[in-house]
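Technical note accompanying the year-one report. For the benefit of new consortium partners, we illustrate the data format agreed upon in the data management plan: each record pairs a sequence with a C-alpha cell string. No post-processing was applied to the example shown here.
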Amino acid sequence: MKRIILSGYYGFNNAGDEAILAALIVGLQEVFGQVEIIVLSANPSWTRKVHGVKAISRTNLVEVVAQLKKTDLLISGGGSLLQDVTGRKTIPYYLSIIILAKALKVPVFFCAQGVGPINAVINQKLVKSVLNRVDLITVRDQKSKELLRQIGVEGLIYVTADPVFMLQPTKEKRIKAILAEEGIDLAQQTVGISIRPWGDNSYLKRLAVVLEQFREEFAIQLLLIPLHYPADLEVSHKLRSLMEGEVAIVTGNYSPQEVLGLVGQVDLLLGVRLHSLIFAALNQMPLLGISYDPKIDSFLASLDLSPIGWIDNLEVEQLSQEIIGKWANKGRVRSKINKKVDQLAGLARYNLELALMLFGGQDGK
C-alpha cells in the first residue's frame, strides 16, 4: 500500500484549501485504491475529524521527518503556496518540506499550484533551485507556467486545473437542512456573495453602495457565503452593517462539500475568493469575479471571462454597470461556463493520472 504525504495550506479553516484537500483525498483513493494519506496540518485533530485521514502538525519537524522516511510520495499543493505577498515565511516553509523529502530520496509531486507573485529575487532563486529537483510539476494556469519558466525552472511543466474540479457537493437533503438551521429562505432570486478581508477593508463601502442599488432595481435577495472561517464571517458582518436592507448570511462553519452545495443554491455568485468562483463554476452557474490577485484573472480567463473590477480600484458606477449587465445576460455567462467545466474537470483528474505514472502506472489495489 502506497503512503502519500500532502503538504499545503491545510488545517486553517479555509474552505477553498480544504476543498483542494478533500478533492485530492478522494482522487488519490480512486486512482491508487488502497493508499495511506498523511496530511501536514495546522490543526491535525480537526483535519482527522473533517477528512478522515491521518494528520500531523505541519511545524513538528521531528514528526515530519519521521513520516517522510516511511512515505512513497510527497504532494506539495495545490493552492497558491509559492507567493511572497501574504508573508515572508510562506515560500521558505513549503520549499523546506520539499527539500527534506528530496534529502530523504522521496519523490515529490508539485501539484496543480498557482504560482506567484514572487517579488523578492532571493525567493525566485530559491524556487528555481528547489523546483528543478522535483519529479513532477503541474500548475493550474498558463501564467504560473510562464512565471516558472521566467525564473529558470526547467523540464516538463504540465498545465492542468485546480483539484477542486473533482469535488462533489454533499447531498441536497443536507443542504436544505443547513438552510433551515440558518433560517435562510431562498424562495426569491438570490445572489451569493463571497468576500475576504483586504487591507483596511475600505472597498466594502463602495461594494455596499453597488449592492444596494442592484438589490433595489431587481428585487433580489443577497446571501453572504464566507469561505475562510472566521475571517470572512467577520468581514461579511461588516459589509452587512454598511447596508440598509436585510442581507442573509451563512454563519456556520461547514465542510467544503457543504459550502459547494450552498453555493449551488443561488442564482448568481459574486466572488472575491477564488474558490467561491470555482464552486460557482462547478455548479455551472453565472459568476462575477472581483480581482485582488492575478490568480483570479487567470481563473476567469480559463472560462473566457474577465474581472468586473479590481479590489484596490473599485468604481461604483462602473461596477454597478458591470453587475447589472451581467445579471441581464446571465444565461449567456452560464453557457460559457458550461462549455469549460467538463474540460477543467478532466484536467484536474489528469493531475492524479500523472502522479500514478511516478510509480510506473501501478496502483495500490
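Partners are asked to follow this layout when depositing records. The domain at 2-159 is CATH 3.40.1190.20 (UDP-N-acetylmuramoyl-L-alanine:D-glutamate ligase).
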